[in-house]
Design goal:
The protein has nine helices and no strands. By secondary structure, the chain is mainly α.
Amino acid sequence: MTAPIPRDMPDLPAIPGMPTQWPSPVPATAVVPPVRRPRTASYRLLVALTATAGVTIDLLLGSPATALSHFTTQSSILLALVMLFSARRAWSARRPLPSAVTGAALLYVTITGLVHHLLLANEASPFSMTGEAATAPTGWHALSNQLLHTVVPAAALLDWLLLTAPGALRLRRAVPWLLYPVAYLVFSLTRGELLPSGTQARYLYPFLDVDHHGYKSVLGNALFLGLAFYALAVLLVALDHARPNPTRHCG
């Protein structure tokens, strides 16, 4: 007769030095094949061309140095580059750009649109540039103005809402994103100090005009705007995690 089988079998001793799990040698791209998105690539290329067209018009119609000193121009150039590289990656089925880069470009161009429409083009704003003494842009200037302050920001938001997977933006990046607006503040004030008094467009934005408001008021304006920009960054991150995924069925 054979011995009865015990109910509780003792566990085998662990072999020292053996890892519990081996890393998979198969990359994720081999499991989930990349997908080309030609329509997304075409849209982003169109946005990049639109931003480039607006910037080019500004450079040709006025002083290139003055045009390149505007926050609008700089943010539009950044967005054009981001959209161009994003279009290439969508066309060739490569991984998207880091969200730290795309989120920064989205934030800056959104700031451009909001500041223009809420502060500069709003007659009720204390920093309005549409008063009786102001001359409304016409012709090519009006076209560039609409492209850079309305069309491009709206197109960037639509790309984020309809063509970008959600949940990529991170709250910890909200503060680093503000480093560029702070650097622009320093650049703008330094530029104004270096230019002779009475120079046209010495200070490019009314809320940064030290000649009219003084440094105390200008720094107060900058602090208020900085807090507003941080709140906007937090809002974009929150919406990015709350919105549905639009990329499941888009090409």
